[in-house]
Automatic annotation (TrEMBL):
InterPro entries: Beta/Gamma-Crystallin, Beta/gamma_crystallin, G_crystallin-like. PROSITE patterns: CRYSTALLIN_BETA_GAMMA. Keywords: Eye lens protein, Repeat. This is Crystallin, beta A1b. Belongs to the beta/gamma-crystallin family. PANTHER family: BETA-CRYSTALLIN A3, BETA/GAMMA CRYSTALLIN. Gene3D superfamilies: Crystallins. Residues 55-101, 108-149 form the Beta/gamma crystallin 'Greek key' domain. GO terms for biological process: lens development in camera-type eye; visual perception. Crystallins are the dominant structural components of the vertebrate eye lens. It comes from the Eukaryota. GO terms for molecular function: structural constituent of eye lens. It comes from Gadus morhua. The keyword Repeat applies.
Length: 199
């Protein structure tokens, strides 16, 4: 059954995700075309597998879009490892999720800055970078960033590993002025790889 949030002001779009409470697309099944702040309120304890049919989504470890973030692009995710990626922190929970409205693989641009509040040296990105240091960034931290268009996922380690942080041009005006704004789970400004989110 499709779930919608009547309080949601998100524009209508081609978003659809099907979630299951068991691995390998078994057990209770629900379809969503907009945000879900707490899967437990829908009668599920957890999301253990899912299929993204339309659009790009971001999943969260806790309710109300808090905790670890997981980028969910079109495809099948039969077990939690498929969406948690090579995250070095074992997490088997996904309680809330929402579409990434501004995801646009063709038009993505962001600027990373050495210091907080868009200060210090800067570098503009419009592609995928498995290693920021290999492309010329001078250390393993990013003080702040501004997403001009599209959406990106930033990773704590090179090769798209570690904690994931979803950065969107339509959140905070695209401005992330310090690492604490990267996500509710962010404990360090360490970012070493970045890629565009495909729609």
């Amino acid at each position: 059954m499709a779930q919608t949030n009547p309080m949601n002001t998100m524009p209508m779009g081609p978003w659809k995700i099907t979630v299951y409470d068991q691995e390998y697309f078994q057990g209770k099944r629900m379809e969503f075309t907009s945000c879900c702040q707490n899967i437990m309120e829908c009668g599920m304890e957890n999301v253990r597998s899912l299929k993204v049919e339309c659009g790009s989504w971001v999943g969260f470890e806790h309710s109300s879009f808090c905790g670890q973030q997981f980028v969910l692009e079109k495809g099948d995710y039969p077990r939690f490892e498929a969406y948690s990626g090579s995250n070095s922190y074992r997490i088997e929970r996904m309680i809330s999720f929402r579409p990434i409205c501004c995801a646009s693989h063709k038009e993505s641009r962001m600027t990373v800055y050495e210091k907080e509040n868009m200060g210090g040296r800067q570098f503009e990105l419009c592609n995928d970078y498995p290693s920021l240091q290999a492309m010329g960034w001078f250390n393993n931290e990013v003080g702040s960033m501004h997403v001009q268009c599209g959406a990106f996922v930033c990773y704590q380690f090179p090769g798209y590993r570690g904690h994931q942080y979803i950065m969107e041009c339509d959140c905070r005006g695209g401005e992330y002025k310090c690492y604490r704004q990267f996500g509710s789970h962010a404990q360090t400004p360490q970012i070493q790889s970045i890629r565009r989110i495909q729609h």
